Amino acid sequence: MERYKVVRTLSSSFCTTCALVEDQWTGKRYFTKTLFLSNATKIHIHQFRMEIHVLSLMDDPYIPHLIDVIEEADQIMIIETLIPGKTWMKMTEEKRQFRLKKRWILELMHLLENLHAHGFLYMDLKLENVMVYQDHVFLIDFNACLPVGSVQVYMSSPSNQTPESLTQKRKEVSTDIYALGVMLKPFYKLSLYRLWCLKCTRKNAKKRFRTMRSARFYFLLAGHIRKGMCLLLFILSVFFYNILFFQSAPQDLIHDYQLQHHQIQGGIQEKTQRLLSEWIVQNRLRKEVLSNEENASFFLEQSIFSRSQSIVSYLLENIPESMQKKMPLQIQLAHWITQQEHSYDASLLIRSLQAIQEEKDIFNKGLHILVVEQLLLEKEIILEKEGRLLLENIHKSWTINEIQENKELFKEVACIHAEYLLFLRSREIQTSSLPQAFIESFQKEETFMKLFELFN
């Protein structure tokens, strides 16, 4: 607990406290939620552990990432990534004529659909639990989640409870769809969206949308239908749009992605996660697109760099097996990212490091070793002597000029390598020193120098 210093208490109740904390080792700030066991009921403890379970399974750039869980005799603390945005509730309070963007609602439906795909219902959808940061929607506070098919509701807000929440009936996806309709209804007084909200909030669960996919389809349909526009014209317009879009040359698609990626603010990994998630939601990375070898190779590389299990899984499912055989190293890295267990094949890892060592493209070589070392650190894998020597040789191969040409990437490479060496030292494994090229290139970078100081 001494590692995380409280910067500011954000909220407090009789059994929980939420706070902003700072990691004394890295200087990063996180959000924490602490449950005091002496004041908590069995239901509070059960749902607190449920939140931990759900966050540990989910891997989406638009929900908090679980950093650590600290359990002590009298309390349990969850440490999550900090989302410094504003809730929809706060935005409505600040601006009387506040209007929701259609894209935000679609992003929210995508987050809920991802949760449902993991077998859980959110159960507490309200304006206070939806945040906007850098013009994207984030979903927070998963302590009311229940497995799909549960009959008992433990924690949810009275304002959006469904009729079946008060009974012992099974709770299905339509329960979250009802809450979504209740939340959005005040924003749509007279429009086709109002009819959509009414469909979501039917008292009979069987008369609502049965899946989030169907709810999203009709929401999009309502947005496209205007005065006198018939459904047939809408379908034809979508049909011709898809024909024109998917006939685009691979170079045009990749160029469009790179242009958008360059315009987004933030770190490389964060930008990659965000943009790939958007393109997947927009159906821009369908099987037809990924059946092109150039597209498949490029976007698989990007998914590996995103380190998002859900994004990597999507690419693996949609790239033809015949193409996967042509890129064995990328496929192996992709499978390691999606692998839940901490076990690994030592010989396969050695062969992968050897393949990385022989790569000619400096950027790809840096990208691949960054992903491998992040996975080693995350899964707490201790390389054998041969693997440690390969890792050392790879990092000593960079020249200062190569690092400067790809400085944003190599800053992350240097920091992750330093963290992994510190991890090995914590396990009493003798390690090499940090490469001199890293020290000279990043001696003015605060994060790297903090790690470097721990070596002395």
TrEMBL record:
The lineage of its organism: Bacteria, Bacillati, Bacillota, Erysipelotrichia, Erysipelotrichales. This is Protein kinase. The chain crosses the membrane at residues 217-241. The keyword Flavoprotein does not apply. PROSITE patterns: PROTEIN_KINASE_DOM, PROTEIN_KINASE_ST. The keyword Kinase applies. It comes from Faecalicoccus pleomorphus. InterPro entries: Kinase-like_dom_sf (IPR011009), Prot_kinase_dom (IPR000719), Ser/Thr_kinase_AS (IPR008271). Keywords: ATP-binding, Kinase, Membrane, Nucleotide-binding, Serine/threonine-protein kinase, Transferase, Transmembrane, Transmembrane helix. One of its GO terms (molecular function) is protein serine/threonine kinase activity. Coiled coil: none annotated. Residues 4-299 form the Protein kinase domain.
